[in-house]
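pasting for ref
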Amino acid sequence: MKKSFFSLKYLLWIQLVFLGLNSYGQQLDRECVNGNTGAQAIIADKTTLFNQLSSQLLSDVQALIQQQSITNAGSVLSFENLESVVTVANQLDEYDKQYDNTYAEYCEAIVQSLWSSSVCNSGFSLENYREEVFEYLEEEKFTLVDDYASTVFAQELSFQSALLKINTDEEDWLISVGENFDNNNPAFNQLINNELYWPVLSEDWNIELRNPEPELNNVTGYSLFRSYINNNWHGRLVSGPNNYEVNQGYDLLSILQFIFDNWDSIENILAWLTENVTYDCNPTTSSHVSNDWRGVPTYMSPDKERKIYYHVRQKGVFGDLKATKTKIEGKVKLYKKKGNRFKKDRNNLVGIGYCTLQWNPCDDQPWPVNDNPHIYGGSHGHKKTKFKHMHPYAFTIERSNDFLTYYLYYNQQFTGEVIYALGGNISCT
């Protein structure tokens, strides 16, 4: 009798497990959704709007090319000046974000409409249903292009950009690593890690300026800058356009490569060139954290395994060979598991933020001046996001309580994953 009781208990446990697997791991009946006229009308409405957006963005990109007089000078793009390059790069970035955000918003709207109409959702949790509908929409209903505006920009100019090459390399990497991520993601290990400029740069990081700003021409003769580049910049130096090369193989392109890796706005670039390139203060403490990944906890993503790949860095931006400005940056991309590999997650938000307490040696005082940690709540975006904060003085780790700590987020919620970049293992949470 006792044996029968335990057998019955075991069978009940097996049934509960089976029901649980059905509830949280079942697959969407796509034929059911395809046969539902109401569902197809809802989906068709959003796909039509999305196709209209794609057409509008293509027209916007074509107009941008004309307005900025961009031409393909063989294997590199030719721009009038640096201001034009920065303007185009930022505009393409805005268009790409608009495309990605609109897609995610339309998908979420479809999910909510289908769920509220009880379309083929028997036995599903809302989270599991959302995951399944997202996959269905991506694979069967929407025609998607990675970095859409930047891609059509390259196509219109018959140009192979650094972005297109890196996107191809990243996809090859995802296929090759399968379920076992490593720290060699090509979207993070580049000469210029600031992907803002990838759409306008060639595969070998080259570009042409027809009429560079006077500030750029002036700095090409700056000997200490040249010495720094020659000793610390490990990229291939290529002769700049219009023979802007100066002695010892130093050229305009090497300056541009340095600028592209550090600044996103023309105002900050010109301010650095005119005001700060000769300023001297103190070196900045640099962080040396390898690009890597962390998992999204299962309680946040119970129906699909997800990983966040990250890059974090504190780095000095030099004056007279000293790091008199400090750049604190972070960059993340979100991936989800599909079958026996991972792919980009287009529907959910990924985020990265930081907090820090350091010493400002230029003014010989703590930063922040109130000696309380500076907290940045984070940058959040669909599929990927980044931030770059430039501080006008050096930061150093001088005291036992100085630190720099990063935080990873999924759908704007802290994942519990912390990256200790500098100083002690100190948290602001």
